[in-house]
Design goal:
The chain has about 375 residues and is mainly α. Helix content is about 70%, strand content about 0%. It contains 16 helices and no strands. The radius of gyration is 24 Å and the shape is elongated. About 40% of the residues are buried.
Length: about 375
């Protein structure tokens, strides 16, 4: 009995149905299934797939998610021409496509695609495969965005456990798993549990990316906010200082990362009665949001609100009243969303899909 062939056929029959809004790709896949060539896949098929995949990831990295969706549509078509030989390639294409759809907020369409890709990978790849870890992180992020935390946390813990056993885990994806777990625990107000997750992410990033890399700065920022929200400002302050230095060098003085760190430092200075330092850092952060986002940015209103509270605590009510009047004049009102990590935490960006031809099939 040709077990790999039978397994491939079964997996192909399990391909999820694309939502009606995506009629173009649904029609494409149905037509391709009817017209599938009988001859073996050719090198040109894989070259076509690789070209579409690269184009899709270029679009993802630039934030052009609708373009990425289109490119991954084409990659799926190319993968279907070769999938009878290797369904891992099709799983990779569906995972990429699901990410582009998820980035556009269409979670109901993305979920079955990401779950199907994970099923294929868990069936065909080694348990410690980077592709499986990436897929679990992606699906866990989707559940986090939907507030389905009870489904997200086990996926992340399974991902971390498998990567700890892997001879050579992908360090960026490994750090991403720990960061996502930390963010999930923060969203559930489990700050003390989030600390070791954020700390492990920092350790991985310092080793793999370097102590001055901006992604290491992101890790330091997350850990600092987790400390600060528990009142552990002695632990938070040096981490904020280090993150600020990294961001100013790597991302420039007007980047949102700089504004968020300045906000955290300003709050610490204000709590300690270091009023001059607090006011200087609030002022810098406010100027950044004014420069990059304009008067309607919710970030600007949030930091003005915190600055107003700081002025109130200093007893400077006349200045507080001016800030409050300014807030009232702005066109955007802020509604804080429940059940999510605050915006000053930094979400890790997904890494490009793991190479589909590297892992070996079992059996």
């Amino acid at each position: 009995m040709n077990y790999p062939c039978l397994l491939t056929t079964a997996l192909l029959l399990m391909i999820p149905t694309i939502a009606p809004a995506q009629a173009t790709i649904e029609d494409l896949l149905k037509a391709d299934a009817r017209a599938r060539p009988a001859h073996p896949s050719s090198p040109s098929d894989l070259l076509d797939w690789a070209a579409y995949n690269r184009a899709g990831w270029r679009a993802i990295n630039k934030g052009y998610y609708d373009t990425a969706e289109h490119e991954f549509h084409a990659a799926i078509k190319a993968a279907r021409r070769t999938s009878i030989d290797d369904p891992r390639l099709l799983a990779r294409s569906y995972a990429d496509y699901a990410l582009a759809v998820q980035k556009q907020g269409r979670h109901a369409e993305a979920e079955p695609l990401a779950k199907w890709a994970l099923t294929v990978r868990e069936t065909l790849l080694d348990p410690e495969s980077p592709a499986i870890a990436q897929n679990r992180n992606q699906l866990a992020t989707l559940y986090y965005e939907l507030g389905r935390f009870a489904e997200s946390e086990p996926l992340l813990r399974r991902s971390i456990e498998a990567q700890a056993k892997a001879p050579k885990a992908d360090p960026r994806e490994h750090a991403r798993s720990h960061t996502l777990l930390g963010l999930l625990l923060v969203a559930r107000r489990r700050f003390a549990e989030s600390e070791p997750a954020f700390l492990k992410a920092v350790q991985i990033l310092e080793t793999s990316r370097g102590p001055s890399h901006p992604e290491t700065g992101d890790g330091l920022n997350n850990l600092a906010w987790a400390y600060h929200e528990q009142g552990k400002d002695d632990e938070a302050r040096p981490l904020f200082d280090r993150a600020l230095s990294i961001f100013e060098r790597s991302r420039g003085p007007l980047h949102p990362s700089v504004a968020y760190v300045l906000d955290g430092l300003a709050q610490i200075h204000a709590a300690r009665g270091e009023n001059d330092e607090a006011e200087a850092k609030f002022g810098r952060a406010i100027a950044i949001w004014e420069k990059i986002s304009g008067a309607g940015a919710s970030e600007l209103i949030q930091i003005l609100t915190r600055y107003s509270r700081s002025l109130e605590a200093m007893g400077r009510r006349a200045e507080r009243d001016k800030v409050e009047a300014r807030i009232a004049s702005l066109p955007v009102k802020v509604t804080m969303s429940e059940g999510k990590a605050s915006p000053w935490y930094r979400f890790p960006e997904p890494t490009q899909g793991a190479a589909p031809m590297t892992p070996r099939l079992r059996g």
